[in-house]
Amino acid sequence: DGKICFVKIHAPWEVLITYAEVLNIKVPIKENDIPSTVENPLDCMLAPLRLPEKVMHPEPDYFTAPFSKEKQELYLINDESTFFSPSMRNRIVNYILTRCPYGTEEGKKKFGIKRLLNNGTYSAAYPLHDCQYWKKANDPNCDNERYTLYMEWARFLRFYKEQPLDLIRKYYGEKIGIYFAWLGFYTEMLFLAAVVGLICFLYGLFTMDENMSSKEICDPAIGGEIIMCPLCDRECEYWRLNTTCVSSEYSHLFDNVATLFFAIFMGIWVTLFLEFWKRRQAGLKYEWDLVDFEEEQQQLQLRPEYEAKCTQKKKNPVTQEMEPYLPITSQAMRFCISGATVLFWVSLIIASMIAVIVYRLAVYAAFASLMENTQTLQPISGLLTPQLATSVTASCLNFVIIMILNFLYERIAIWITDMEIPRTHMEYENRLTMKMFLFQFVNYYSSCFYVAFFKGKFVGYPGAYTYMFNRWRNEECDPAGCLIELTTQLTIVMAGKQIWGNIQEAIVPWICNWWGRRKARNNPENLYSRWEQDHDLQTFGALGLFYEYLEMVIQFGFITLFVASFPLAPLLALMNNILEIRVDSWKLTTQYRRPVAAKAHSIGVWQEILNGMAILSVVTNAFIVAFTSDMIPRLVYYYAYSENEDSPMSGYINNSLSVFQISDFPDRNKPKLNPENFVICRLVYRDYRYPPDHERRYLHTMQFWHILAAKLAFIIIMEHVVFIVKFFVAWMIPDVPADVKAKIKREKYLTQKILHEYELEKLKERL
After folding, report:
1. pLDDT averaged over the chain?
2. Which Gene Ontology terms of cellular component type are present (predicted)?
């Protein structure tokens, strides 16, 4: 446009070898002579999923050693221009630019490209892509790695193919490479969970007609004769149980014996996933020369922002050099402000959830009176009960509030983390991760926790109902149980988040790029240079990968914490992740500037978060099966209270719905109309109370306490069984495979041997 000036920075050989030594970069010294592992007999069957060898392994496997300028002849330097990979080169250049001084102000040194970007001296700083993504470069020496990645990896039609992880690592660096390795591995493991979940769902589908509870509810002679107490005060009428026939049939899809099996299976699956990922990660650490890469190397690299803002200095006990530091009083004050801000926003989420609960209570009464008194809803009223109608609308409202709070909190979290002035990049990421995860955990899961563990548990009974703020009567579960409502809540929030996430990730950057390049598109390519094309792309940013991990970890929570209520959740996650891999790869390859390469030998603090969620998931699923599903009350009735040997579950519905005498209604609750002059009505939810003619009327029966004891016993037994199996499996599976251990030892031995021989040769020459 004749206005923007570009400065191209090139690092010559001398600069590269100097900083390769500073950054302790490992380079090849000898080709790997360890034979590859035994071929898999299934390889011929998996051939259609494979990519060409040149794409999967763009370089031979070498033994490596840290670079040293004095020992250059030791390394396999065939061509100086290609010896350092593109990701290594852009990492070195970025390292120099972030620490380069450019002036002084009030006696303080000013340095770093980030500061120049912040004050507007430069508008952008980025490494260049090597070519167009849709065609190869004209230069015959260009590797065309971007083109290869697009053709073999970033197109959706390649969804069934493996990922070229070595090429991703070579082009984008280890940090992005390890994210895609983790996402691919997670997706592969989801396949097993999705298959088992689908089988459990199909079991519920095929046994729907055999479910005695829904048979009794739908039977006009049983459910049609059971008169239920009104769903709201004054305005609502009495209604017959068989009007909930359809919803009770559908609830059996998720509330059956297979639910228990699947909850236990997922507790073990999570352990297998985390343990096998550790093994996969250990293999990548070896293959990508990250075995000796320690976070300490990053720890020693201070953030330029930290160096700029901290005026006081003290001696570093490790390097013995003077470096800036933040006084403890300043740190304490910043942490207090940060903690108070996080607490305020978490309180805001809880307040918004209470507001949604109030909405549920207010709208529930409206739906109840509308659906009972309106004939126009007759065709759908069989499926859409007042409880379900309330749940669907509240879930949609809750999802909108979640997305708005997310949008606002992201900016607040970055601001308060910047205010804390973390010392290193790793510290910065870890602090931001914990803040964002805590917030999103409460934001996304609070509504599911409410439906699973609180809804319908504190209702009271006719004449002594529990009210919120002394105004709104607490919600009751559907006669078929609360599990179907938890399934609805989970499906809407989980599916809505995934759809919205993919729209944000794919469509928004594409529209921004299309609009930004509208003028340049008419120019010939020789006028629209590589750096100008890249300048018009979106910025991936230092936190780009952070948001990708956060999205997947929140999804991981949905498929583990509440999976007992929705066996199809892993299948939904699998379908999303197959799309997610290709969307992430497409946007990174085509819509974003090339990110600065960074090293990472693991998924970092996310591993600990996943471990914590895995343990919590066992507890939540045990409570869901015990308190939210109807399994334990059915089992107690089957073994202790059934009176029909031929059909043990017959009479269960009649047994579980307590009787209330209508004349005992206080004026506040009593319906205005009772045209059929009913004498008694039944409580909507499962409750076990003595009838009105009993001396302990409306108090809990002994069956209630038996069921409560059975629920608590079940939780303890299930948790202990799953935890024992989990820890046994974790103990059985070593974190590092035996062949990787052997390769690491072999490489260390060979490296020491080669270095020793080299030193001997040098000594002989000198003598």
Report:
1. 84
2. plasma membrane
The count of other CB atoms within 10 Å of the CB of residue 521 is 9
Q: DSSP letters along 474-519, please? A: PP---TT-SHHHHHHHHHHHHHHHHHHHHIIIIIHHHHHHHHHTTT
**In the numeric block, which tokens belong to residue 754?**
């080669």
Q: What is the DSSP secondary-structure string of 81-92?
A: HHHS-HHHHHHH
The torsion angle over the Cα atoms of residues 571, 573, 579 and 581, rounded to 10 degrees, is -130
Select from 383, 388, 543 the least CA-distant residue to 475.
388
Taking the CA atoms of residue 505, residue 510, residue 511 and residue 516 in that order, the dihedral angle to the nearest 10 degrees is 130
Strand partners, 661: 680
Closest CA to 275 of 373, 146, 189: 189
Burial class (CB in 10 A: 0-12, 13-18, 19+), 36: exposed
CA distance 536 to 449: 44
Record the tokens describing residue 592, joined without a space: 């974003």
Taking only the tens place, the pLDDT of each residue in 219-254 is 888 888 888 888 777 777 888 888 888 878 888 888
Judging by beta carbons within 10 Å of its beta carbon (0-12, 13-18, 19+), is residue 99 exposed, middle or buried? middle
Q: pTM of this prediction?
A: 0.88
**CB atoms < 10 A from the CB of 43, how many?**
9
How many helices (H) and strands (E) are present in the chain, helices listed first? 28, 14
Q: What are 342-399's pLDDT values in tens digits?
A: 888 888 888 888 888 888 778 876 776 665 554 444 444 455 666 677 778 888 888 8
Using an 8 Å Cβ cutoff, are 80 and 164 in contact? no
- DSSP element (H, E) containing 324: strand 322-324
DSSP string, 720-762: HHHHHHHHHHHHHS-SS-HHHHHHHHHHHHHHHHHHHHHHHHH
Closest CA to 131 of 73, 171, 79, 181: 171
Tokens of 129: 């892509």
CA distance 184 to 162: 8
